[in-house]
What we know:
The protein is mainly alpha-helical. The protein has one domain. The chain starts with 7 loop residues before the first helix and ends with a helix. The model has no long low-confidence stretch (mean pLDDT 80). The protein is elongated.
Amino acid sequence: MPSERPLERVWTAYIITKDALQLSQRASVQRQRHLFEDLELLESAPRAAESALSAARERADEFVSLAMWAEFERSLIEFLEARTQSVRTSSPRLLWRRLGDHVTQGVEYWKSDDRLDILKGFVHPERVGQAKEVGKFRDWIAHKNPRRRPSRKVEPEDTYQLLSAILAVLDAARFRGYRRRARAREYLRTG
C-alpha cells in the first residue's frame, strides 16, 4: 500500500470543500453578494446561487464517495497482489510462481465483489457486505444507470469510516506479517 492512510487526502479535501460551500451558502442567505463578485457562475445569477450551492454540495457528497472507493479499491488490489508474492517461493516453485503471476495479473480485472469476498473471515462479513453496498453506490454515481439503482444512499462519513476500518485491518495484517518475518530472520541470525 503506497500510503498508510490512502483515504485521508480525499477526506480532507472533501471537508474543505464542504466547509467552503457552507460558507458560501451562509453568505448567500445573508445577501452578501459582494463576496460573489469574482465568481462567474454565482455572480451572474445571484438568485440561483443558493440552489446552485446546494446542488454543488450534493455532487461533492457523490464525488467524495467515488474518490474514496477508487483509493480503497487500489489499496485492496495492491494488498492482494502483495499477498501473492510469498507463494512464489513455495515448492514446487514453477507451479507457485506461475500461479502467483496469474493472480497478480488478474487481480486488477476481478470484479469488486470478488475481491471483497476474499476478505470474508479476515474482515467481518457484515463489513464486507457494507463495502459491497458502497461499491454499488459508487457504480450508480459513476454510471447513473436507472436499471441498477443502489438499494440505499451511502453517506460520505459512513463510507469514510467503513473503508478506513477495512484498510486498517489490512494494514494490521501486513504489519503482523512483517513482524513474523523479522522474528524469523532474527531467529535465523542468532540461532
